[in-house]
Design brief:
Distance between the termini: 38 Å
Number of domains: 1
Order of helices and strands: HHEHEEHEHEHHEHHE
CATH topology: Rossmann fold
Shape: globular
CATH superfamily: Vaccinia Virus protein VP39
Strand order of the largest sheet: 3-2-1-4-5-7-6
CATH class: Alpha Beta
Structural class: alpha/beta
Largest sheet: 7 strands, mixed
Strand content: 15-25%
Radius of gyration: 18 Å
Number of helices: 9
Helix content: 25-40%
């Protein structure tokens, strides 16, 4: 593997304490995102007509998504640049304080799908970062990416957590394609939250800079289910606070002449 570009996107201890308090995995946002990621994996499996093998979540934090996916039977691991405390049940599956580019080569060679969930907005050069990941994981076929959406929602929250940008669809496609992959599906998510956050910002109230674990978990489960099913009501081009995309590296999937990466695709719930 060639030289690795430096990319210090690790959170501080205080940032982790603020954004990942104990019990945050029960918050409606994480409930919905976990389900969205699971649905994206099933979509890939239907498209590929085969199960996805080993997966790696890059920038996995304390392993919320890794724990969820392993609970559904996925062979999922995580790597986190910051030296965060990992729950005991996940210690065999998450590298803490470790650059994903420096994991053992025998492990990297077996990874078929990489998850970059709210990661690349922290990287100054996301195209270079994605290209380097591609070289480090030569048998990876798929990427699932989520990013914060819409620059009109830029706030002190983005500044606090080291974001370089918020995305729209063409911007995400451009970065993915320049890194050597095709963005074969994307859509806005958390569309029901968009008008709320937009209004808060325009009225000067801003966004909270820390998260709170839910007191009423059952209520958050219901809200999470509603956010998961918002796709039944909203076009994928209706603005949301996030974008979720699925990409495939070109050397694993030669494109047919005339094929469009924006073609109609099956619904992802």
């Amino acid at each position: 593997m060639g030289a690795v570009p430096e990319h210090d996107s690790a959170f501080t201890d205080q940032q982790y304490a603020d954004i990942y308090p104990e019990g945050i995995q029960y918050h409606f946002w994480y409930v919905a995102r976990n389900a969205i990621v699971s649905n994206a994996i099933r979509w890939i499996e239907r498209l590929n007509q085969a199960s996805v093998g080993r997966m790696l979540e890059v920038g996995c934090g304390r392993g919320i998504v890794v724990e969820h996916l392993r609970g559904t039977g996925c062979d999922c691991y995580g790597a986190e640049l910051a030296p965060v405390a990992i729950p005991g049940a996940l210690k065999d599956y998450v590298w803490s304080g470790t650059d994903c580019l420096m994991l053992p080569s025998d492990f990297r060679n077996k990874v078929e799908l990489i998850l970059l969930l709210d990661v690349i907005e922290h990287i100054e050069d996301p195209v270079g970062f994605l290209a380097t990941i591609r070289r480090a994981y030569p048998n990876c076929q798929w990427l699932i990416v989520s990013v914060p959406a819409r620059m009109e929602l830029w706030s002190s929250f983005d500044e606090r957590y080291g974001h370089f940008r918020r995305y729209d669809g063409p911007m995400l496609r451009d970065e993915i394609e320049r890194a050597g992959a095709d963005l074969i599906y994307w859509r806005y998510r958390f569309t029901l939250l968009y008008p709320l956050i937009y209004t808060l910002l325009r009225t000067g109230k801003g966004r909270a800079l820390s998260n709170r674990a839910p007191r009423f978990r059952f209520l958050h489960r219901i809200i999470g289910e509603v956010l998961l099913r918002e796709t039944w009501l909203c076009s994928r081009r209706v603005y949301g606070t996030s974008i979720v995309g699925i990409a495939r590296f070109r050397d694993h999937a030669p494109r047919v002449v005339g094929e469009s990466t924006d073609r109609p695709v099956p619904h992802i719930g």
